[in-house]
UniProtKB/TrEMBL annotation, chains A, B:
Organism: Bacillus selenitireducens (strain ATCC 700615 / DSM 15326 / MLS10)
Keyword Transferase: yes
Catalytic reactions on record: L-isoleucine + 2-oxoglutarate = (S)-3-methyl-2-oxopentanoate + L-glutamate; L-valine + 2-oxoglutarate = 3-methyl-2-oxobutanoate + L-glutamate; L-leucine + 2-oxoglutarate = 4-methyl-2-oxopentanoate + L-glutamate
Sites bearing N6-(pyridoxal phosphate)lysine, chain numbering: K196
UniProt-recorded name of the protein: branched-chain-amino-acid transaminase
BP-aspect Gene Ontology terms: isoleucine biosynthetic process; L-leucine biosynthetic process; L-valine biosynthetic process
Keywords: Amino-acid biosynthesis, Aminotransferase, Branched-chain amino acid biosynthesis, Pyridoxal phosphate, Transferase
Family: Belongs to the class-IV pyridoxal-phosphate-dependent aminotransferase family.
Pathway connected to this protein: Amino-acid biosynthesis; L-leucine biosynthesis; L-leucine from 3-methyl-2-oxobutanoate: step 4/4; Amino-acid biosynthesis; L-valine biosynthesis; L-valine from pyruvate: step 4/4; Amino-acid biosynthesis; L-isoleucine biosynthesis; L-isoleucine from 2-oxobutanoate: step 4/4
Entries under InterPro entries matching the protein: Aminotrans_IV, Aminotransferase-like, B_amino_transII, BCAT-like_C, BCAT-like_N, BCAT_family
The keyword Amino-acid biosynthesis appears for this protein: yes
Pfam families: Aminotran_4
Example GO molecular function: branched-chain-amino-acid transaminase activity
Enzyme Commission code: 2.6.1.42
Amino acid sequence: MSTELKWTKTDQLKPKPDETSLPFGRIFTDYMLKVTYDEGQGWSEPHILPYGPIELDPAAMVLHYGQTVFEGLKAYRTTDGHVQLFRPDENMKRMNRSHRRMSIPEFDEDRMLKALIELVNIEKDWVPSHEGTSLYIRPFVISTEANLAVHPSKSYEYYIILSPVGSYYPEGINPVKIQVEDEFTRAVKGGTGTAKTGGNYSAGYNAQEKASKSGHAQVLWLDAIEKQYIEEVGSMNVLFKIDGEIVTPALSGSILEGVTRKSILELLHSWDIPVLERKISIRELIQAQKDGTLEEAFGAGTAAVVSPIGSFTYKGESYQVQSGETGELTKKLYETITGIQTGKIEDPFDWTIKL
Amino acid sequence: MSTELKWTKTDQLKPKPDETSLPFGRIFTDYMLKVTYDEGQGWSEPHILPYGPIELDPAAMVLHYGQTVFEGLKAYRTTDGHVQLFRPDENMKRMNRSHRRMSIPEFDEDRMLKALIELVNIEKDWVPSHEGTSLYIRPFVISTEANLAVHPSKSYEYYIILSPVGSYYPEGINPVKIQVEDEFTRAVKGGTGTAKTGGNYSAGYNAQEKASKSGHAQVLWLDAIEKQYIEEVGSMNVLFKIDGEIVTPALSGSILEGVTRKSILELLHSWDIPVLERKISIRELIQAQKDGTLEEAFGAGTAAVVSPIGSFTYKGESYQVQSGETGELTKKLYETITGIQTGKIEDPFDWTIKL
């Protein structure tokens, strides 16, 4: 393996884990990528170095004021043994959008994508091939200035770490029960909901714990203002099949613009299935369930790809989505996207990049 | 100096800085305090150790999902040379409230306060005595589990770092111009606005940068829902004197419960000045300014104590608060609180703890 990047090698390579029992995000590869930013100097050349601890001053801003951004994407082992990425350019674009919202200096997307590809190339042997597995790629940027004043940092560190993963949900593609949250809020227009930043995620822990206690796998978030309109499920976008049409919340300024969501909408378009991106209220969803027109419901995101919703609970009342089984379209979408990702199905959209 | 706590000593003490030109939060003392939490074991015994880098796994949750909490309080040098704290028990209580909102295990407030006092005691010589200076105390807790799954961490580290500081605002007690923000949002009911957690602070950077560009020192936040009701100014609570009465936004679920705010309300009560904690809209504020009944306006927080507002800008229009000078009551509140903090004025409320 060779690279044009600066590469500090280790001679202590880790043993590869058992591919049949991979957890999510707890095993990491031998190397990580690091880029630094200093005011006046811009982003440095990328450096590949052994995976290991990050040293931060106790006053480093990331530990106090949450100025962080991250991304999540995956490398897949194809059926013929190659490794490929799924729409990584979309993640780089979104990362820069998140940077803008969090007052972090933007970077050169092409250059950062090239560096990401080089890192994955070096760590190719870590991409698992067992059904449902992949190499999860986590780029993230942290603010490192040692200063307790509340203002944007003057220095940053950007890292990419890699983790061979199994399914995000132990349930796999099986339907989950979700809890409609009507007290806690994830995000609001004008806030940080459209950015992939840390604070959005821990803000949901209270609600997630409440949902878990009542036997629900995920939280369905409502809008912060009227507590009526559906936003996201857990940390995924959410889609419904109602009377033959797909309805999904429009990107209104508090919802993350998911790459899986985007891909699903493009797929549905190519299949001539009508898609409506609009406001959808919890009342409308309940009415559709009562009328029998709520045919399918599922979350969509990089970690789980597609996660079918078997039932939802709102104000103590539970509503089953049809038979409670994974819907046909949900299954077809899952199989098509994972099929394209793993090279089982031809990629007519040029979504994949072969390494 | 002695302590009952575990104490790792350094023999390389730093030189003390020039007290007449202290920045805010960029100089740190010789020691910090550390307490760790591990699932099943609870919070460990506190350990005082030399101020130095924190080592984190690159997958440590704080770097990804923003599960953090912090506090801010000060130790003051009294006119007779002692050192005292101002209502530190309030900060410990609020910290536990923040822990609950962020799904971080609570700690024993008394034990943590005792440890804080021991640390400040050891670092007593770092408490400056020059006018307007103090030793800023920053307790903070970070989530340290190395795991990319989105859920509460199973391990935490709690630190206290200390920084001798001058005035937070270079303007000191001089009035500042503020910008009423009507696009970006700081917090919403059901969100994390009442918790002192990182994400709330970096969420405001975009608006702060916009305000700075137009020559404003601070942002005045409106409520996220109707964009009508006043919430906070910068990272301080805000109070207005209108027609002889003090009006301040009620703690409605998106506003931080400030210790300085609370102390001011208690002082005003003791002075028989009427205080109204209620909703106040930007329209009402503008009307009061036009009618000439808006007598004073100021922010209140630990860092700046009291920060007078000279004028505010809303939708391009600027409104001066009376003569644009620091109001009489604002000045009296500043002098009384800093007087109590530094022992110049008797403390009839038992707010101070002498070390």
